[in-house]
Amino acid sequence: MRVLITGGSGFVGQRLCRQLVEQGHEVQVVSRSPHQVRDRLPNNCDIRDSAQAFIESPPDALVNLAGEPIAAKRWSDEQKAKLINSRVAATEQLVALCEQLKANGQPLPKVMVSGSAMGYYGDQGKRVVTEKTMPNDEFAHRLCKQWEAAAKPIEAMGVRLAIVRIGLVLEAGGGSLEKMLPPFKWGLGGRFGSGEQFMPWIHRDDLVAAILFLINQEGLSGAFNGCAPHPVTNATFTKTLASHLNRPAIFPVPAFVLKAGFGEMSRLLLTGADMRPVRLEEAGFSFQYPTLDKAFEAIL
Fold first, then answer.
1. pLDDT digit string, tens, across residues 84-100
2. Beta strand 232-233 with 198-199: parallel, antiparallel or unpaired?
3. How far apart, in whole angstroms, are the C-alpha atoms of residue 90 and residue 87?
4. How far apart are CA 284 and CA 220, in angstroms?
5. CB of 165 closer than 8 Å to CB of 275
6. CB 32: neighbour CB atoms within 10 A?
7. Which of 44, 73, 140, 180 has the smallest C-beta neighbourhood within 10 Å, fewest atoms?
8. Whole-number Cα distances in Å, 186 to 4, 175, 249, 251, 254
9. Does pTM top 0.85 for this prediction?
């Protein structure tokens, strides 16, 4: 199978590319800087600067993971536009590729697995969140809504579309733990605000396995929550992380400090959703790391 990936040089994309290559698949990667990302990916990945560059070798499947990191900078109006545009533009590029393939009479991909995020639901308090839960209208939701909408036209061309609303991705060497681990290792970690907000999370290996599962299961389409089946509150996450590091977690960060430092972006830290992977589990997907303890045992 030939799989085209946007965001293939990112934290999740790198692992996905390696898994696909190890399984004997042909991997195509879209990157604005092919030469700069070459050393992050398996040698036999075909890396080009646009999806349209692969028009002569049409992919059998698309995986769309590209997007500006959401927590890299304070959310100014300019940064909000960049967060939205980076995701929408990458998605539209894949749709345009399919339109061109169709116009040329070339075979279309059978499936597109397109990224989204837990932010689709916005702040949900303590209620259990499934794929049917109505979102809370705020910036994170609007970003994800536009991201998902940009992929929708692909369905009219007969391409199966599965959207993955991804939780916090956990693994050593990057993702959500990259900035979190140092203060905890120094014994300076603590909960954010009240600590009562939920943190849906997923081990990187389980997320990659879920993406492969959605590619291969022909009957699956629509939205899927990409998170472990046992989300935890921030307070529990903090306590569990500190315990696995054999460190205390006695330095909570007050909500007003986070709001002062990060502005609106502080909502990523102070709000959350008790998100559950209902549709993945109903489809028969099995998690290697269903609990936070198991995930941290493997990572730490």
1. 999 999 999 999 999 99
2. antiparallel
3. 5
4. 11
5. yes
6. 11
7. 44
8. 41, 19, 10, 11, 19
9. yes
The amino acid at residue 107 is: P
Residue 239 clears pLDDT 90, i.e. is over it: yes
Collapse the DSSP code of 288 into the 3-class scheme (helix H, G, I; strand E, B; otherwise coil) and give the result: coil
For 65-79, write each residue's pLDDT tens digit: 999 999 889 999 999
Residues linked to residue 233 through DSSP beta bridges, in sequence order? 198
Distance CA 202, CA 166 (A): 8
Q: b vs e for 67-106, b when ≥16 Cβ sit within 10 Å of the residue's Cβ?
A: beebeeeebeeeeeebbbebbbebbebbbebbeebeeeee
Helix (H) or strand (E) holding 281: helix 278-282
Q: Are 141 and 83 in contact (CB under 8 A)?
A: no
161-168 average pLDDT score: 98
SS3 state at 291: coil
How far, in Å, CA of 38 to CA of 58, rounded?
21
Can you tell me the distance from the alpha carbon of 21 to that of 150, in angstroms, rounded to the nearest whole number?
Answer: 28
Assigned token pair, 218: 């022909």
Amino acid identity of residue 233, one-letter, is T
Tell me what the pLDDT averaged over the chain comes to. Answer: 96
Write the CA distances from 165 to 29, 45, 69, 93, 145, integer angstroms: 21, 26, 15, 20, 11
Distance in Å from the first CA to the final CA of the chain: 34
Q: Residue 26 belongs to what H/E stretch?
A: strand 26-30
Residue in the block written with tokens 């934290």:
11
Let me know: does 26 contact 2? Beta carbons within 8 Å. yes
109 secondary structure, DSSP code = P
> Rounded CA gap, 102 and 84, in Å?
27
Distances from the Cα of 52 to the Cα of 29, 48, 96, 235, 239, angstroms: 11, 9, 8, 46, 47
Q: Is-contact 127 272, C-beta < 8 A?
A: no
Is residue 151 within 8 A of residue 91, CB to CB? The reply is yes
**Per-residue pLDDT, 72:** 86
